[in-house]
């Protein structure tokens, strides 16, 4: 049986020697890429403002700046309402909004 470890808080902790990181840590590669720009072109929607107005008329609530991030494929999250609104607007299944990255 091993003896219990006693930690004293009034003594300095030993510093750990870790090797330097040779490259910066990166997040996971995106596996899904939005096709909103392509679908906009196919439906002759030239500006994000026009897309935003059409989605707003359908009852989809999204700010213009957030929609711009969606169109530029730089958003980190998507709402189900937005996905359904885009699929309805472009008359396609939700899966057609994405391509493999």
Automatic annotation (TrEMBL):
InterPro entries: Cro/C1-type_HTH, Lambda_DNA-bd_dom_sf. Gene3D superfamilies: lambda repressor-like DNA-binding domains (1.10.260.40). PROSITE patterns: HTH_CROC1. It comes from the Bacteria. Residues 62-97 form the HTH cro/C1-type domain. This is Helix-turn-helix transcriptional regulator.
């Amino acid at each position: 049986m091993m003896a219990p470890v006693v930690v004293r808080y009034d003594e300095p902790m030993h510093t750990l020697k870790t090797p330097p990181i040779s490259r910066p840590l990166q997040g996971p590669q995106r596996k899904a890429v939005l096709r909103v720009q392509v679908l906009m072109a196919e439906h002759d929607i030239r500006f994000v403002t026009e897309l935003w107005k059409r989605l707003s008329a359908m009852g989809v609530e999204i700010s213009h700046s957030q929609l711009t991030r969606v169109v530029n494929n730089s958003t980190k999250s998507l709402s189900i309402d937005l996905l359904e609104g885009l699929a309805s607007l472009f008359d396609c299944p939700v899966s057609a909004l994405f391509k493999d990255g």
